[in-house]
Amino acid sequence: MNTPMTRLLPALLFALATISSGPAAGAEADGQAPGAAAITASDFSAPDTWGAAKNVVGIRHLFLSGQPDSESFAAAAEHGVGVVINLRYPDEQDWDEAAAAAAAGLDYYNLPVSRSGPGFDDETLARISAVVGEHRDTKILMHCSTGNRAAAWLAYHLVRDHGMPVEESIELSQLAGLTNAGMQTRVRDYLAPQGGE
Fold first, then answer.
1. Does some domain include residue 120?
2. Hey, what's the torsion of the CAs at 173, 164, 134, 53, to 10 degrees?
3. Residue 34 belongs to a domain
4. Taking Cα atoms as reference points, which of 57, 70, 197, 71 lies closest to residue 141?
5. Fewest CB atoms within 10 Å of the CB: 27, 33, 63, 108?
6. Cβ distance 48 to 162 under 8 Å?
7. What is the CATH number of the domain that holds 101?
8. Going along the chain, which residue ranges are E strands?
C-alpha cells in the first residue's frame, strides 16, 4: 500500500531514536543500546517559564511550550536550544517569529498543525518527526499557542515511533501540556484506530 505514511516510513524510522538517543537519554546508563530506553514520567522536567513561554517542559533534548517571544528565544539559547519548531499557522501570529528566532541564533521551522478538526494531517506530523530526527543531537523548542498541539505531536510520536499504547501516551503528554480535553479526545480518536489500545 503506497500511502503518504508508507512513503514517509523511512523518515519516521529515522525519528524513532530522536528523543531516546538525545544527549540526556538514559539508554547508555541502563546498558541498553542507544534509542532503546523507554520514555517515562521521570524524563519530564518540571514546568519552567522562558519569557512569555509558560510551562516549558523538557523531555530529554526536546522542550514543549506555549507561544514564545524574543525573551523566550534568548532563554532557549541559554539552555542550549538550537532549533525552534513552530506548529502555529502564520495567520495566528502578528509578529515575525522567524526573524526573532534567527536573531537569537536559532534555526527555525514552521510546520503548522490545525487547532481543531476530526484528525491530524499524517504528512505534517511525519515531517515534524523527521525534523526532530534530523536534529536529534540538538536541543529543540517546539511550540504552538498553548502547548496542546505540541503535546499532541508528542503523543503521536510516543505511539508511532516508540510503540507506546495510546492511553499511556496521552497520560504522559498531559505532563507536557496536553491539557485540553477536546484535544485529548482528538488525539485518542486519531491514534486508537491505527495501532494502539
1. yes
2. 0
3. no
4. 57
5. 33
6. no
7. 3.90.190.10
8. 48-50, 53-59, 62-65, 81-86, 107-110, 139-143
